[in-house]
Sequence to fold (227 residues):
Amino acid sequence: GENVEQHPSTLSVQEGDSAVIKCTYSDSASNYFPWYKQELGKRPQLIIDIRSNVGEKKDQRIAVTLNKTAKHFSLHITETQPEDSAVYFCAASGRSGGYNKLIFGAGTRLAVHP
Amino acid sequence: DAGVTQSPTHLIKTRGQHVTLRCSPISGHKSVSWYQQVLGQGPQFIFQYYEKEERGRGNFPDRFSARQFPNYSSELNVNALLLGDSALYLCASSLGQSGETQYFGPGTRLLVL
Fold:
């Protein structure tokens, strides 16, 4: 079935270091891969997304890479700051069927220590 | 900035009761999707509605139902509540039907006792 695996489940870094979160997906038909940041008690907020016709996308300190052959995609955060501390979720679009289903990973709890 | 809104924010019910959750999408968005987020897990897809029609359904029992109104707002109904239905219910709004960016509302936190 459709599945997204996300690693690591927790990540602790020092302020200024880089953080990398990796996801793999099972459905080769997936073509849209968003990343969401969720702070405690808040809604998931879209931070960056990538579509299957692009291998890499960058937005300031955040970048996402996609390897369609290996069905891997990764989130890279550089120069981490304490306000980056949150749970990060990767997602992949579900099997094409004319609808907007997202399959989410289990999340990575990122802690950035000053 | 009129983002996705949901009501109520919190709800406490007892087993066997039913609940109705409401969502208003971003102005101009025609699609609403519902997700269930159990504590410590990622959101799980329940339904998508587009132009008032069900376009997709996740692996949830028939106790879960939804509908979309002419103004594109949506309701999620859950009957015969179980303890395991306790979760954060998220509504996501998107412009179109497929492959679109989804923006989440603040969610409704449901506790079933």
Summary: DSSP finds no helices and eleven strands in chain B. The radius of gyration of chain B is 13 Å.
